[in-house]
Amino acid sequence: MSKRRIIKDTVKKHIPQRHLSSIRIMYRIGMETIYGIKRTGLINIAIVAAMAAILTIFGALFRTSFSLSSFVDKLGDAFEISVYLKQGTDPEYISSRIQEIEHVKKITIITKEQAWEEMNKDIDVTGLENPLPDTLHVTIDDPANISDVCDNIKKVPGIENMSYAQEMAKKLQTITNVFNTVTIIVMIAVAMLTIIIINCTIQLVIQSRKDEIEIMRLMGVSNWYIKIPLILQGAVYGFLGSLISLIPLNTVQNGLFKLHEFLNVPPSEFAMNIVVFCLFVTAIFFSAGGSMLSIKKHLQV
């Protein structure tokens, strides 16, 4: 008896029979999946390439949306609402009232004396009476909330006037909304295209194995034993498409890093990890889902 045979028999003795049966079934399912992919032939290349292309577009937009959010947050820190107080109003009291408003991040008090001193550095105003009001510079957490914060500040007594870069805040928010909407639309398109591609592919596999599947059914083979290899085949396409899409996505990542360095804006720490995770989950889920739809439509098992 060969050494290999002795080792094999020894391993079998330590594995319960039910586990051995499960291992054999999983092995056969794996081989059936590989067999199905081989039967598809050169079409596999076209399928994986098409999926990699649409996943690259989705991944690039998704990754860019993280960077855009970082840029907007950084610019949002620069957005300040200048609040001018009435004469005789206590800046500390007004500051404490405004601090209670939701979305207010930080308040800097600039007294009229400080403002007058700064003005004296640029313009000689010696001998003139200080006409400047006490001012509060209010920083908010998100430019999208600037209008709501302003409306609430107006309700605080002792406010003379306010000013902020309203138009720029609106434009930034519009850009963010448009980009997020486009990303969602692309994700829906990715899902639909993935399902269509996999649906057509699995249909071809089913047609090529129609007689074989019919024989398996007549022999009493479990429906799931027939279905699972086809579902796994779709999942493999999704996995391979995601894997290939990482190559161009890495180029996008490097380009965004350079942009972050140029603008001196720290990038999101886990952005790429999140994008890669979502990419694989989305591709595998919708690819397997496309296989299941195809099985339900073209294979009555």
Summed up, what is this model?
With 301 residues, this protein is an alpha+beta fold. The protein has helices at 3-13, 17-40, 43-78, 91-99, 112-122, 146-154, 166-208, 210-218, 223-263, 271-298; strands spanning 80-85, 104-110, 135-140, 159-163.
Largest sheet: 4 strands, antiparallel
Structural class: alpha+beta
What gyration radius follows from the Cα positions, in whole Å? 32 Å
Weakly predicted, low-confidence segments: 10-16
- The number of E-state strands comes to 4
Structural notes for this entry:
This protein is an alpha+beta fold and 301 residues long. The chain folds into two domains: 27-73 and 171-298, no CATH class; 80-164, Alpha-Beta Plaits. Helices cover 73% and strands 8% of the residues. It contains ten helices and four strands; from the N terminus they run αααβαβαβαβαααα. The protein has helices at residues 3-13, 17-40, 43-78, 91-99, 112-122, 146-154, 166-208, 210-218, 223-263, 271-298; strands spanning 80-85, 104-110, 135-140, 159-163. A four-stranded antiparallel β-sheet has the order 2-3-1-4. Helix 3 packs parallel to helix 9 (223-263) and helix 3 runs antiparallel to helix 10.
